[in-house]
């Protein structure tokens, strides 16, 4: 499995911690921050944004990825890594929807998240085998 350089991992996790303060989570009280590193080494961040209509909530991971897409110049985004942190420092693996969105931008993307065993690094292919890919006839 491809590992992140310690320097990149630290920078990514610090960026995720920095954005955590901006999370809007008045309903769950669970603030999440995420940072992504593109194939070019650029970092983009995002936080969860909840809504009174609960199902409209966006997770921190997707918020960070959408920001990366919106702010990158042309071509398909390639994701080197994603880090996710939460204010409570409890286990928080990315949800299924976020796994599918991460997998769109690279099967080897490394995901750093807190599990029951502390911070772990797994590739998105490990976290989401058989992700959906659109097959056109
Ligand atoms: N949440 C994230 O932002 N990322 C995750 O990986 C898991 C869950 C958010 C969604 C919601 O605002 C809150 O955490 C509680 O589910």
The string of secondary-structure elements, in order, is HEEHEHEEH
Helix content: 25-40%
CATH class: Alpha Beta
Instruction: List the strand order in the largest sheet.
Output: 2-1-3-4-5
CATH homologous superfamily designation: Cytidine Deaminase, domain 2
Name the beta content range: 15-25%
| Gross morphology | globular
Mean pLDDT: 96
What is the CATH architecture descriptor?
Answer: 3-Layer(aba) Sandwich
Find the count of extended strands (DSSP E, 2+ residues). Answer: 5
Q: What's the CATH topology name?
A: Cytidine Deaminase, domain 2
Largest sheet: 5 strands, mixed
Give the structure's gist in a few sentences.
Helices cover 29% and strands 23% of the residues.
Give a written overview of the molecule:
There is one protein chain. The chain has 137 residues and is an alpha+beta fold. It has a single domain (6-127), classed as Cytidine Deaminase, domain 2. 29% of the residues lie in helices and 23% in strands. The protein is built from 4 helices and 5 strands, in the order αββαβαββα. The protein has helices spanning 6-20, 60-71, 96-104, 124-127, and strands spanning 32-38, 43-47, 79-86, 110-115, 118-123. A hairpin with a 2-residue loop joins strand 4 and strand 5 (118-123). The termini are far apart. The mean pLDDT is 96. Residues 25, 28, 30, 32, 48, 50, 57, 59-61, 84, 92, 94-95, 98 line the site of tetrahydrodeoxyuridine (THU).
């Amino acid at each position: 499995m491809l590992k992140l350089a310690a320097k990149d991992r630290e920078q990514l996790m610090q960026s995720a911690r920095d954005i955590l303060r901006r999370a809007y989570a008045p309903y769950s009280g669970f603030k999440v921050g995420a940072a992504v590193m593109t194939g070019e080494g650029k970092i983009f961040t995002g936080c969860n944004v909840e809504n009174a209509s609960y199902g409209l909530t966006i997770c921190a991971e997707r918020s960070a990825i959408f920001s990366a897409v919106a702010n990158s110049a042309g071509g398909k985004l390639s994701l080197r890594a994603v880090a996710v942190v939460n204010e409570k420092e409890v286990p928080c693996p990315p949800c299924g929807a976020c796994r599918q969105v991460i997998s769109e931008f690279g099967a080897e993307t490394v995901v750093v998240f807190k599990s029951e065993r502390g911070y772990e690094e797994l590739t998105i292919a490990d976290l989401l085998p058989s992700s959906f890919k659109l097959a056109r006839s």
